[in-house]
Automatic annotation (TrEMBL):
GO terms for biological process: proteolysis. It comes from Sphingobium quisquiliarum P25. This is Peptidase M19. It comes from the Bacteria. GO terms for molecular function: metallodipeptidase activity. PROSITE patterns: RENAL_DIPEPTIDASE_2. SUPFAM superfamilies: Metallo-dependent hydrolases.
Length: 395
């Protein structure tokens, strides 16, 4: 498929590339831990996004100048039952162990970060920075004290809900399209208090606007949107409007810009492709313990779907930058960051994996932002929010 000129591979000017390598660059939402448990897959080896559909590994992080970020323990939403909670709890704990094992297996290249001040020395040592986050608090069940276990493991940012309402909060995309609580549930308010007590940053991405209102009113510390966009550019429930953007900034919070194509602009439906992918993903879920051979078979099926039903309409790098530039216009460079949703659906034409990250730095320079501004956007702002959560926690 021939891409628009602006979305085709662009040469990043030398000055921008050099600046990008100097900066401390963090992505606040890496779904890459899901790759760690794939049979035969290694974070140490270089992979190709159009072959195995992964977007982050150590060689590509080095090429794209990504120093690290927040590696997510993501758990899909399941039934609100004790059995569902226990299954999710076990899955989330094991996913957290996978992140810790990645760090332990290669201390020369990865280092766990627990406080905001850890990022700079890790980057200076040439290692990748590994903060841990939790996407969807569903695995906590109804036991708020379980959050302490994840905090002890290293989790420093936590979201409340995902694609559907849960025991803590309303989702922005629940299939019912109706609120359950009108914001945080009573249990969700307890969870927020425990986050504040422990020094965990509250993440409002995926939660409803009313949840964000509750967080802004009740949290003792600034709120983060780890991977979101702007409703003014594309009116999607996963994005937030300018009033919420301003309210977020007024409380010291930050929006980290998302690169999930379906949230950036309207995408023309491709029913045949969607049907084929839905069937393939259902098969992947059924085969939870994939063998290398089975995974190779499923990847071949995915590549065949791409051949038979190519993506005729994709969001582009320019679409992503439109959201970022709008947020910068509304709240300025002190309240905007980057959380592209790599390995969780993120990536657009012209920015396919982490090797393309210098394009963001180049675009911001071209738009007139200073090195100091760009450093805030790439990591300064999210680290400031983390430091504020640390400062407010119970001693």
């Amino acid at each position: 498929m021939l891409l628009p000129l602006a979305a085709q591979a662009q040469e990043v000017p030398k000055a921008a590339a050099q600046l990008h390598q100097r900066l401390i660059t963090l992505d606040s939402h890496l779904d890459t831990p899901a790759s760690l448990d794939l049979p035969g897959w290694s974070i140490e080896e270089g992979h190709e996004v159009h072959s195995d559909y992964t977007q982050v590994d150590l060689p590509r992080m080095k090429k794209g100048g990504l120093d690290g970020g927040f590696w997510a323990i993501y758990t899909p939403q399941g039934p609100l039952t004790q059995e569902g909670f226990q299954k999710a709890r076990d899955f989330a704990l094991l996913r957290g162990v996978s992140i810790r094992e990645m760090v332990a297996a290669d201390p020369a290249n990865f280092q766990l970060a627990l406080e905001a001040k850890d990022a700079a020395p890790i980057a200076k040592a040439g290692k990748r920075i590994v903060y841990m986050s939790m996407e969807n608090a569903y695995p906590l069940g109804e036991d708020i004290s379980l959050l302490r276990t994840f905090h002890a493991m290293g989790v420093r940012v936590a979201g409340f809900a995902h694609f559907a309402h849960n025991q803590f909060a309303d989702s922005s995309t629940d299939p019912s399209k109706k609120p359950r609580y009108g914001g945080l549930s009573p249990l969700g308010k307890e969870l927020l208090r425990e986050m504040n007590r422990l020094g965990i940053v509250p993440d409002a991405s995926h939660s409803s606007d009313q949840v964000l209102d509750d967080l802004l009113a009740l949290s003792k510390t600034p709120v983060l949107l780890t991977h979101s966009g702007c409703k003014a550019i594309y009116d999607h429930p996963r994005n937030i409007d300018d009033d919420h953007l301003k309210a977020l900034a007024a409380k010291g919070g930050v929006i980290q810009m998302n690169a999930y194509g379906a949230y950036l602009r309207e995408i023309k439906p491709n029913p045949e492709r969607q049907k084929a992918l839905a069937a393939l993903f259902a098969q992947m879920r059924e085969d939870a313990k994939l063998s290398p051979e089975k995974r190779a078979e499923l990847l071949a099926k995915r590549q065949e779907i791409d051949r038979l039903y190519p993506e005729a309409d994709r969001a582009t790098f320019d679409d992503f930058m439109a959201h970022m530039m709008h947020a910068l216009k509304v709240v300025g460079p002190d309240h905007v960051g980057i959380g592209l949703d790599w390995d969780g659906g993120g990536g657009v034409a012209g920015m396919e994996d982490v090797r393309d990250l210098p394009k963001i730095t180049a675009a911001l320079l071209k738009a007139g932002y200073s090195e100091a501004d760009i450093q805030k956007i790439w990591s300064g702002n999210v680290l400031r929010v983390l430091a504020a959560a640390e400062a407010a926690k119970e001693k």
